[in-house]
Amino acid sequence: MAAQDFVGQGWAFPPRVSASGGIALVRRERELEEAMRIILMTYPGERPMRPGFGCRLRDFVYRNADELTAAELSQEVRQSLAQWEPRVTITQVDVKPDSYQRNMLLIDIQYMIKDENDRRNLVFPFYSIPDDGSDY
Length: 136
Known about the structure:
The protein is of the alpha+beta class. It has one domain: Nuclear Transport Factor 2, Chain: A (Roll), CATH 3.10.450. The protein contains 3 helices and 5 strands, in the order αββααβββ. Strands 3-4-5 form a 3-stranded antiparallel sheet, covered by helices on one side. A hairpin with a 5-residue loop joins β4 and β5 (119-127).
């Protein structure tokens, strides 16, 4: 089975129209990255027919962008992607504060497409709103 057949194709996210007037589709690595972003941006309970689908990133929005939050975010992302994206193996999730914005954590997801030996990564920005008494 070719890797492209294994990964498949799906609707582009956000949904849009292709140049030929049909629904825009994405394939291969783009399909996987968009699927992982959808998992990370969907909160469990938002999809009535799949109430457990998604990731609880919103639970971390009002927490400080510190090492404890980073470790817990890493674990949540790893568990959610392992459960909902079977086409990849998550090898590492690093969460680090952004050097320019103190309220942003960068989630670096390193993964391999199953049936391939092709390592890839996806960087997902996560913004927190810490309750430190300051107004931005």
